[in-house]
Amino acid sequence: MELTERFAWEGRRIACGRAGAGPPVVFCHGTPFSSALWQPFAEALSRDFTVHLWDMPGYGSSSQHAGHPVDFGAQADAFAALLGHWGLDRPHVIAHDFGGAVSLRTHLSLGVGYASLMLVDVVAIPPSGSPFFRFVQEHPDVLGGLPAYIHAAIVRAYIQGASHRGLRDDDLDALVRPWTGDDGQPAFYRQIAGYDERFLEENERHLGRVRIPVRILWGTRDAWIPVEVAQRLRSLIPGAELALIEDAGHLMHHDAPVPLMDEIRAWLAGR
Questions:
Q1: pLDDT tens for residues 56-102?
Q2: How far is CA 73 from CA 68, 80, 128, 136, 183, in A?
Q3: In the chain, fewer beta carbons within 10 Å around the N or the C end?
Q4: Which residues form the AB hydrolase-1 domain (predicted)?
């Protein structure tokens, strides 16, 4: 499934695509990833659903302009505009990592309705951010000027740490590639520097207003965001369900693709 569409929004170029037929399902990726993580799952679901993928501005195949904010607020505004462009009314939304906070803000602060929401190892509530993440926030300009080979090695090590089982070289290459080159390298550090936890605090204050079905999936070996965060998130969302996936890290897509696909199908079938 290719991102063959380009949606122009406030000077940005958002790469997106859709396929299949049936009820709409929209996938939201996280950082430092792209819609490529969700592509195999979207393809598998396209027989029964109309699946929608997009790269957030600053990520993947979308534009990476230095002057454009890439924080949670900007991404939520972009998501709401894209859903309007697609003409979707109450789609099912499945989100990973940063996409969790974006989808929650789009629903809670912008009033966009969903049929259901599945949250997979998400950034959603404070605190968040690894020591590396915080270091980058303090030195974005210095790191953006690193020699390309050192930068590539840092990004490879960082992304590899998101998987409990370890990533194959070709999969790791695909995840690292958007963050290399003259545009990708500074964009990698810029999206971390623009990270603002105040949006997570705002989300947390409003989670009690969620009235849609929510299921939370979490890898028991997530080294980026511990399971305790998932448990607290479930306690804050009325009626939310939580399922723990054994031996999966933050990149459940690669660590446990079959259990993840089973969870997605069962969740959507029950809606």
A1: 999 999 998 888 989 999 999 999 999 999 999 999 999 999 999 99
A2: 12, 11, 17, 20, 22
A3: C
A4: 25-259
CB atoms within 10 A of CB 194: 16
Q: What angle do CA 161, 141, 99 make, to 5 degrees?
A: 45
The pLDDT value given to residue 96: 98
Does pTM top 0.85 for this prediction? yes
d(C-alpha 82, C-alpha 167), whole Å: 31
| Range 5-128+196-269 has CATH code 3.40.50.1820 | yes
- Beta strand pairing status for 92-97 and 24-28? parallel
Token digits for 198? 């105040």
Query: Hey, is 8 helix, strand or coil?
Result: strand
| Mean pLDDT within 141-167 | 91
pLDDT score at 141: 72
In 3D space, the residue among 192, 239, 186 whose CA is nearest the CA of residue 216 turns out to be: 239
- Residue 233 CA, distance from chain mean position: 17
